[in-house]
What we know:
Helix content is 40%, strand content 23%. Helix 3 (97-105) crosses helix 5 (121-141) and helix 5 runs antiparallel to helix 6 (156-169). It has helices spanning 44-51, 74-79, 97-105, 113-118, 121-141, 156-169, 186-203, 214-220, 238-242, 245-252; strands at 6-15, 18-28, 33-37, 59-64, 67-68, 82-84, 174-178, 206-210, 223-228, 231-236. The strands form two sheets. A six-stranded mixed sheet has the order 6-7-8-3-9-10, with helices on both faces. Strands 2-1-4-5 form a four-stranded antiparallel sheet, covered by helices on one side. The chain folds into two domains: 29-55 and 72-81 and 174-255, P-loop containing nucleotide triphosphate hydrolases (Rossmann fold), CATH 3.40.50.300; 85-171, P-loop containing nucleotide triphosphate hydrolases (Rossmann fold). Strand 9 and strand 10 (231-236) form a beta hairpin. By secondary structure, the chain is of the alpha/beta class. The N and C termini lie far apart (39 Å).
Amino acid sequence: xxxxxxxxxxxxxxxxxxxxxxxxxxxxxxxxxxxxxxxxxxxxxxxxxxxxxxxxxxxxxxxxxxxxxxxxxxxxxxxxxxxxxxxxxxxxxxxxxxxxxxxxxxxxxxxxxxxxxxxxxxxxxxxxxxxxxxxxxxxxxxxxxxxxxxxxxxxxxxxxxxxxxxxxxxxxxxxxxxxxxxxxxxxxxxxxxxxxxxxxxxxxxxxxxxxxxxxxxxxxxxxxxxxxxxxxxxxxxxxxxxxxxxxxxxxxxxxx
Length: 256
């Protein structure tokens, strides 16, 4: 088996004396999709913030492809190939759908200032590759028909798709998705699952998925980690964790 691409070792995070995350651990392998579920306030989004550099762990270590990123800035982590989406959408509302995605893809162009000024062969090759990737993502996600509309005018579900596609345009190796199907109806969530399944296969992504739509989790994830009160209470296949007594208790209460 290949080495783990992303490793979290004994992560803790404290806010004003409250332990939001307690001893979280993860090994994410190339091409693997791991779900992260649990009741509201379980610490899931805090874990994503820790892994992506938006919070620093109070204790523990995070390793990405052999590099210790425990105290690395979020923008540097993104350049290393770990990208995340947010629970609350953060688009450039005045830009079109296509422009939002193109802006995200630009930093991955391998060009020198001289290439840009002289419009060299490498410049033309890189720009063509950039346009092809953006076009491919627009078509596969179903956004092609609305690519010229300002992103801020779109319905919530479409804005959510734009945010995910924008993250994919950065060519990540690891993608952290914080409730990607939030606010979507059943058919929209199913279409999103289709797209994520395609993207994961097409680009060989490793995914960590926070999601309350359990049908999305069951379809996409090989493994699921369940959190409650900042700690992991179960881990296994989707079928295993849904039958775990601690998981049932966390969701349904002690009487369950």
